[in-house]
Design goal:
The complex is a heterodimer of chains A (about 110) and B (about 120). Chain A has about 110 residues and is mostly beta strands. Helices cover about 0% and strands about 55% of the residues of chain A. In chain A, strands 2, 4, 5, 6, 9, 10 and 11 form a 7-stranded mixed β-sheet that branches. Chain A has a 4-stranded antiparallel β-sheet with strand order 1-3-8-7, with no helix packed on it. Chain A is globular. Chain B is an all-beta fold and about 120 residues long. In chain B, about 0% of the residues lie in helices and about 55% in strands. In chain B, the strands form 2 sheets. In chain B, strands 2, 4, 5, 9, 10 and 11 form a 6-stranded mixed β-sheet that branches. A 5-stranded antiparallel β-sheet of chain B has the order 1-3-8-7-6, with no helix packed on it. In chain B, a hairpin with a 6-residue loop joins strand 4 and strand 5. The chains are: A mainly beta (about 110), B mainly beta (about 120). Chains A and B meet through strand 4, strand 5, strand 9 and strand 10 of A and strand 4, strand 5 and strand 10 of B.
Chain lengths: ~110, ~120
């Protein structure tokens, strides 16, 4: 069974640009969450989608947004990139409430 | 806000010894507690989890204990091997209404197992 797939693995952008990251969950999983990982702040929750609806949102500015498609694939978008957005962005999928969340290997985003 | 404290931040053991990592959580409504192992260049890998209605769970060399009263849970690795070397994260969440709940993570423990 294929795991969570995130694309691309690496991205380099400059300040002010925008970026879209993609996540394909494990087959059958309808819940997708996004996390940001940095050395200083650790792993922080961005948002969760279930059946195309945002169920939960973390404390990030509105520049961070996401969506989920009918096949459960998800994208997150970051607009007006700032240097502090440099991080590993992780996607996790699960079957739903209190079910184990399985992570992909992330997208490493570097802002120059 | 909700918080998970994890100790120690680094842990070095000899191969064959046991390793213990401890976490405390602040949200008394938390009901799900997973542990993840993250190797360099990889995403976190779920290694064991426990729910609030269970006090202890074991899977081969790995065990987790939960004390709801103290809001404390621990990871125990016995007979450590060099391949256990990685960063370990504890997390807590409270799923509700179909939502899986957001995981609140500890800051991580870098475990080094010396051969």
């Amino acid at each position: 069974k294929a795991g969570v797939t995130q694309t691309p693995r690496y991205l380099i952008k400059t300040r002010g640009q925008q970026v879209t990251l993609s996540c394909s969950p494990i087959s059958g999983h309808r819940s997708v969450s996004w996390y940001q990982q940095t050395p200083g702040q650790g792993l922080q929750f961005l948002f969760e989608y279930f059946s195309e609806t945002q169920r939960n949102k973390g404390n990030f500015p509105g520049r961070f947004s996401g969506r989920q498609f009918s096949n459960s694939r998800s994208e997150m978008n970051v607009s007006t990139l700032e240097l502090g957005d440099s991080a590993l962005y992780l996607c996790a999928s699960s079957l739903g409430e209190n079910q184990p969340q399985h992570f992909g290997d992330g997208t490493r985003l570097s802002i120059l | 806000g909700e918080n998970v404290e994890q100790h120690p931040s680094t842990l070095s053991v000899q191969e064959g010894d046991s390793a213990v990592i401890k976490c405390t959580y602040s949200d008394s409504a938390s009901n799900y507690f997973p542990w993840y192992k993250q190797e360099l260049g990889k995403g976190p890998q779920l290694i064991i989890d426990i729910r609030s209605n269970v006090g202890e769970k074991k899977d081969q060399r790995i065990a987790v204990t939960l004390n709801k009263t103290a809001k404390h849970f621990s990871l125990h690795i016995t007979e450590t091997q060099p391949e256990d070397s990685a960063v370990y994260f504890c997390a807590a969440s409270r799923g509700y209404g179909g939502s899986q709940g957001n995981l609140i993570f500890g800051k991580g423990t870098k475990l080094s197992v010396k051969p």
